[in-house]
UniProtKB/TrEMBL annotation:
It is a peripheral membrane protein. GO terms for molecular function: CDP-glycerol glycerophosphotransferase activity. GO terms for cellular component: plasma membrane. The keyword Membrane applies. It comes from the Bacteria. Pfam families: Glyphos_transf. It comes from Weissella cibaria. Keywords: Cell membrane, Membrane, Teichoic acid biosynthesis, Transferase, Transmembrane, Transmembrane helix. The keyword Repeat does not apply. GO terms for biological process: teichoic acid biosynthetic process. Belongs to the CDP-glycerol glycerophosphotransferase family. This is Uncharacterized protein. Its main location: membrane. PANTHER family: TEICHOIC ACID GLYCEROL-PHOSPHATE PRIMASE (PTHR37316), TEICHOIC ACID GLYCEROL-PHOSPHATE TRANSFERASE (PTHR37316:SF3).
Length: 379
């Protein structure tokens, strides 16, 4: 049986099916636009193209949901599998895989996303306000600089016209101007996701989160977050189960994989793929990742970050990078033995984290929250 994700991959990676999908979609949207007018007080949210109830769209949702000034707004969530999300606060949810999704898209004046909300059909939306909170600082190449990008996805990067795109700093502002050339306005105030840990700290504590995860040990907590490669790798890409087990003797090891990745099968490791990443930030004492932008969001909490990149050369050839880890001053290892040596060093260079935050993530979450509400008030 072919699943929805397999169908999406076929459409994205086939020129024929990709353009067929695009023109059929555009035709449907243009027809619906003749009859559907947006509700001035309706907002549609989507996170990671419908896979999650998380990240900045969730924080934006909570900001509006808890503000009495927006009590009469209709807040709608789009999910690939709506039945998987039973949170009480989600009172309106729709399927993002249904053709009727485009009806709801046009019916909502405001669109809030951290990736594509328009299902790779970048149509003209004069009556709607498209607010984009991208899901990370771009270290990996995007758009025209991304190697082997599917034609339909490349077309989306070139043609999508966000009304507002939030950025972390001047670094990603400059990058996104190139990646999304039709964006109407950039909002360089940082990202709302910076307020997520603040929200969790206000209603829960570290010990409660550890209990949720089943952590009973007093050992330091190591968070391991590898990213998805998107190609058949010839080199080693992730830590082996044997190394994870070795680390588990000294640390409580939490594995948080990319939503496309295979979960680890190591028995001593806590697999937390569906657990809030920002709750994991709260309980973790250090982070190991590779090319994932997660370390930009972890660094402000002033906890050690280690990069494990055994396949650097292959990744540069097959995926592309804007810069290498050496330029960041963070400890980077190219083998498991090197990584163990790095972890065993007594001193950690916290000045490198300060420099990273100053360059890539200098704003507080309140700035983005104010800017987001200002958009709703003035459009």
């Amino acid at each position: 049986m072919i699943h929805a994700q397999q169908i999406k991959n076929i459409i994205k990676n086939s020129t024929l099916f990709g353009w067929l999908y695009y023109w059929v979609g555009v035709t449907i949207v243009k027809f619906l636009q003749l009859f559907i007018k947006p509700n001035e007080k309706q907002i549609l949210f989507i996170s990671y193209s419908g896979r999650q109830f998380s990240d900045t769209p969730k924080e934006a949702f909570n900001l509006i949901r808890e503000d009495p000034a927006y009590a009469d707004y209709k807040l709608v969530w789009a999910f690939n599998r709506p039945s998987d999300f039973k949170q009480a606060e989600i009172t309106n949810k729709i399927s993002s895989n249904s053709p009727l999704f485009f009806y709801h898209l046009l019916r909502s004046k405001y669109w809030v996303a951290n990736s594509s909300i328009d299902r790779l059909i970048p149509f003209k939306h004069d009556n709607n306000v498209y607010i984009q909170f991208w899901h990370g600082v771009p270290m990996k190449a995007l758009g025209h600089t991304e190697i082997g990008l599917a034609p339909l996805v490349q077309h989306w990067y070139d043609k999508v016209a966000f009304d507002y795109m939030f950025t972390y700093s001047h670094y990603d502002l400059d990058k996104f101007k190139e990646v999304f050339p039709r964006t109407k306005r950039f909002v360089n105030t940082g990202q709302l996701r910076k307020k997520i840990v603040e929200r969790y700290e206000g209603k829960t504590n570290v010990e409660h989160i550890k209990k949720e995860l089943g952590i009973k040990s007093d050992k330091k907590v190591l968070l391991y977050v590898p990213t998805f490669r998107g190609y058949d790798a010839k080199e080693q890409t992730t830590l082996t189960d044997a190394t994870l087990e070795r680390l588990a003797k000294e640390y409580v090891v939490i594995y948080r994989g990319h939503y496309f990745s295979r979960a680890t099968q190591s028995g001593s490791i806590i697999t937390a793929d569906k657990f809030s990443l920002y709750k994991l930030f709260m309980v973790s004492d250090l982070l190991i990742t590779d090319f994932s932008s997660v370390f930009f969001d972890f660094a402000p909490y002033h906890k050690p970050v280690y990069l494990f990149q055994p396949d650097l050369e292959e990744y540069q050839v097959k995926r592309g990078l804007y810069f290498t880890a050496e330029t960041l001053g963070l400890p980077v290892s190219y083998s498991e033995a090197e990584l163990i040596d790095c972890l065993n060093k007594v001193e950690y260079d916290y000045d490198a984290l300060d420099a990273l935050n100053s360059r890539f993530n200098p704003h507080g979450g309140d700035e983005a929250a104010f800017a987001f509400k200002s958009i709703l008030e003035h459009t």
